[in-house]
């Protein structure tokens, strides 16, 4: 990462250029990255690997097994279920707050990685275009890999048909967009750049991490998310903004989550 990507935003946000001594030494910075990932998507990657090992050792092919993404948290008790859904959504964003705090402490801010609302037209427009590109490609990869027996049957939602299902699914999609793109693209690429990593190596590491925490869905989606990570990483290096990626990811997941409620079982070529 070059100074052109992040330093102007930090200076604009703080009013004066951040002091180079604000950053901890490289050893502490490495530990910071490890701790953030251990509390968020690094842990999710380990969990996904364990889940995939369980899938491989279970009877039946991958396509005969199911991966559910959003599930009830209190059967037959809608208000308790809703409370637990909202609680889980809110606290799952704690690592994003931690990242914002750590960057502020090092003389930067969330604006350093383009996580702000200063350019709504650009963010929404490019985010929608990325969502169309990645969403269409991801759907194709899922259907083809499922038919080849390389991917589990992904059930985006198993909620019970409550009045609040769609709002919760939309919030879940937004949570995924914020959590994944802020941490795995914006924060991770920024910090790896400060640690001296070459941009392409940082993007590759970010993309491999993204692929691994989706491994529970199967081999096909592992490679689909690897490509998504490469595209998103290139975009971030090119424009220095993570917000369009948050928009794109949120739109993709809204279509997947909410669309599954109305389309799965009604369209012949969609696995269910």
In short:
The chain has 272 residues and is mainly α.
Shape: globular
| Strand percent estimate | under 5%
Structural class: mainly alpha
| Overall average pLDDT | 90
The residue fraction in helices comes out at 55-70%
Instruction: Report how far the terminal alpha carbons are from each other.
Output: 42 Å
Low-confidence segments, given as residue ranges, are: 1-21
Annotation field: number of helices = 10
Largest sheet: 2 strands, parallel
**Element-by-element helix/strand order:** HHHEHHHEHHHH
Largest sheet: spatial strand order: 1-2
Radius of gyration: 19 Å
Number of strands: 2
Domain CAAX prenyl protease 2/Lysostaphin resistance protein A-like: 163-254
Pfam families: Rce1-like
InterPro entries: Rce1/LyrA-like_dom
Biased composition (Basic and acidic residues): 1-12
């Amino acid at each position: 990462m070059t100074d052109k990507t992040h330093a102007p935003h930090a200076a604009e946000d703080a009013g004066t250029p951040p002091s180079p001594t604000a950053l901890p030494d490289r050893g502490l910075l490495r530990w910071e990255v490890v701790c953030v990932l251990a509390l968020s998507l690094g842990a999710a990657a380990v969990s996904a690997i364990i889940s995939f090992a369980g899938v491989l050792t279970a009877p039946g092919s991958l396509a005969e097994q199911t991966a559910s993404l959003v599930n009830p948290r209190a059967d037959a008790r809608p208000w308790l279920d809703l409370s637990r859904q909202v609680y889980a959504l809110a606290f799952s964003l704690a690592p994003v707050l931690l990242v914002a705090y750590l960057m502020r402490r090092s003389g930067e801010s969330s604006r350093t990685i383009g996580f702000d609302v200063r350019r709504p037209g650009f963010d929404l427009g490019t985010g929608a275009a990325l969502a169309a590109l990645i969403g269409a490609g991801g759907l194709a990869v899922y259907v083809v890999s499922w038919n080849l027996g390389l991917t589990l049957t992904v059930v985006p939602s198993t909620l019970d048909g409550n009045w609040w299902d769609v709002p919760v699914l939309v919030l879940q999609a937004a949570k995924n967009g914020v959590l994944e793109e802020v941490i795995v693209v914006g924060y991770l690429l920024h910090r790896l750049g400060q640690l001296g990593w070459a941009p392409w190596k940082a993007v590759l590491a970010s993309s491999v991490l993204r692929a691994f925490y989706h491994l529970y869905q199967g081999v096909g989606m592992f490679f689909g998310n690897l490509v998504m990570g490469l595209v998103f990483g290139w975009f971030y290096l090119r424009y220095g903004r993570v917000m369009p990626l948050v928009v794109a990811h949120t739109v993709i997941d809204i279509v997947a989550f909410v669309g599954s409620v109305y389309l799965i079982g009604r369209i012949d070529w969609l696995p269910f």
